[in-house]
Fold this sequence. Notes:
The chain is built from 20 helices and two strands. It has helices spanning 3-20, 22-30, 34-58, 67-91, 98-109, 125-153, 161-166, 180-201, 205-216, 234-247, 253-258, 262-266, 269-292, 297-315, 330-342, 355-373, 390-415, 421-432, 454-468, 472-475; strands at 382-383, 386-387. Strands 1-2 form a two-stranded antiparallel ribbon. The radius of gyration is 22 Å and the shape is globular.
Amino acid sequence: MRFRLIFSIIGFMTVIGGLVMLLPAAVDWFWDFHQSAAVFALTSALTVAVGTILLLLTDVHHVPLRTKEMFIVTTLVWAAFVLFSALPFCFLGLNMSFVDALFEATSGLTTTGATVIADLSRLSPGTLFWRSLMHWMGGIGILVVAILILPTLQIGGMQLFNIEMSGESDRDMPTMSKNILGIFIFFVFLTLLAVISLYAGGMDWFDAVNHAMSVVATGGFSTHNESIAYFNSPVIDWILIFFMFIGGLPLAIGWLLITRNFSAIRDNEQIKNFCFLCIGLVLFIAAVRWHQAAFDNHALSEVLRSTAFSVVSIVSTTGFVTVNYESWGSYATMIFFFLLLSGACTGSTSGGIKIFRYTILFKTIRAKLKSAARPNGVFIPRYGNKPVTEDIVTGVLVFMGLYAVCASVGAVLLSLFGLDLITSLSGAVSSLSNMGPALGKLIGPDQTFALLPEGAKLVMTLLMIIGRLEFVAVFVLLVPFFWKRNI
């Protein structure tokens, strides 16, 4: 294990994170919030200093990482970013404990969107910008992990991801790793498009920039206590629905659009399943709600809009809120709990188990049922035009098994702090899926996480990081065999 190389990379990434902190400092300085600007400047200097010291102490030439080193670097870089991103919240005079600051930073960087700040109006513009910027930086980090690292490490069936998005154009798109720059450019393009669209829809520039960074990264931080309901605008709602939906799609789509490989998009199974899931649930819930409203034609457009917003927000794990969907009835609560588990597409910034893994699972189950009905037949599950190998199926099952175990253990731990069943279970699932709003009166869609005990916040903080790093990348570090010298 080349620890000098590992800490050299961590030092380099820490320096970058520290320099980024100068952006909220500049925002506060522009709006004459000089005290908070000084806090961001000082924490930036501290972060850069720590990263620089690590670089000077290690002083190695970067070479390709081995597989086991990728696990450690991935986990430690995220841990370092969370730790240093929490520092501004500790020193801004918000009366936040270190646990609250850690929770807020983790929620931001993992694009979860859960907050412990009950009143956003007391935050400076730079602090609001920092929360949204953490979402955006976390979204970039998630893309690197999901597109560049996880397929290499063969985590959770992710080794099929490159095949899934390459279609028949391997010559035009040799590997995802070589085109990470193209995907980053597409991510930036989506952000700029969202800013312009939201400004044209009625937001001011500051709100447009903040919400654009949040929605493209499928986070959930807003600049107002009422979240998106503050704007009370159908136009803004539909704009955000569009970008939340796009955020739930694999961002490698950007490269496929540039190379005009439309067939790879059209034939992609998880994209089709994601579209069917969103459209089907929106139509079903809207139809039930319209029936409950006695088929009032005046209410139809509002029912359709609020339903579409809530469904797409939850399934993409964005977490923006316009209405309290728990008030729609127990059937809606059960559907949204399922959506907490599902997530959107692999290769997006959304959390959850992902449509891709459910598709592999259902195809495997169907193949096994066919084999049971015809023992002499040979039935191989296929994803697109590719056979699903045994190691991919095993990876998916291991991932889903770890998810179930972590959700169960997390719910039990949360219940130890006096939380009820719905709050404990939905809080654990929401944290693992990097969702944000959960269910129940304490942490429901119209509530914050401020009233939770600090122990519960620590449990959720850990669950957010575990879920964001796809479980295996964290738990493999706990296996003694991993640390043996000759592997």
